Amino acid sequence: MVIDIFRKKLGFLNLIVDFFTKKNVGIILGGFILARVIAIGGTLLLNTQGAESTANDAAIQTIFTGESPLLIILLIGISAPIMEEIVFRGGIIGYWLAKFPIVAIAISSIVFGLIHGPTNLISFLIYGLMGLILSLACYKTQRLEISISIHFLNNIFAAIVIAFGMI
């Protein structure tokens, strides 16, 4: 009851309550788990070909070696998901979605996969399928912040691993 009173007086609480519905939280957690399964499965497949990680992951690890953990978390974990989702889901899907939803989702997923610099089919599939998860989450909910949240969870996990040398 107290929360309802504050919700009516302070509109921003409506946004918070409306965002954290069971459906949205389920999509966010499900998308994150699926993204991690794809990343782990893809990495295991890369290992069978003699690669330890994707070229994108290796480049990120090289670039950020010795950098401040806070900088790593801010750039990889927070800034990148927001910027990439605005471009790929907000821009590409937002532009094409009304008339061509399947085309919008496909283009967004493919370009997302390509922008991460795949050097082989497995790397492309890892990022392309992650792009597909993010695109479908955005399409299904019509909320960009859902795909941002999934992307954030995925990247923050990787950023913490890189920042604190857990690899």
Summary tags:
167 residues; mainly alpha; 82% helix; globular
What's a concise summary of this model?
This protein is mostly helical and 167 residues long. It has helices at 2-9, 12-19, 22-48, 55-64, 69-96, 101-115, 121-141, 144-163.
Tell me about this structure.
- It is a single chain.
- With 167 residues, this protein is mostly helical.
- It has one domain.
- Helices cover 82% and strands 0% of the residues.
- Helix 6 crosses helix 7 and helix 7 packs across helix 8.
- The radius of gyration is 17 Å and the shape is globular.
Instruction: Please tally the helical runs, counting DSSP H or I stretches of 4 or more residues.
Output: 8
Query: How many structural domains?
Result: 1
Shape: globular
- The average pLDDT score comes to 88
> How would you characterize the largest beta sheet?
none
| Amino- and carboxy-terminal Cα gap | 47 Å
List low-confidence stretches: none
Structural class: mainly alpha
The succession of helices and strands, N to C, reads: HHHHHHHH
Q: How many strands? A: 0
Could you tell me the strand content as a percent range? under 5%
Give the radius of gyration.
Answer: 17 Å
Kindly state the percentage of residues in helix: over 70%
Family: Belongs to the UPF0177 family.
Domain CAAX prenyl protease 2/Lysostaphin resistance protein A-like: 68-157
Keywords: Membrane, Transmembrane, Transmembrane helix
Protein name: CAAX prenyl protease 2/Lysostaphin resistance protein A-like domain-containing protein
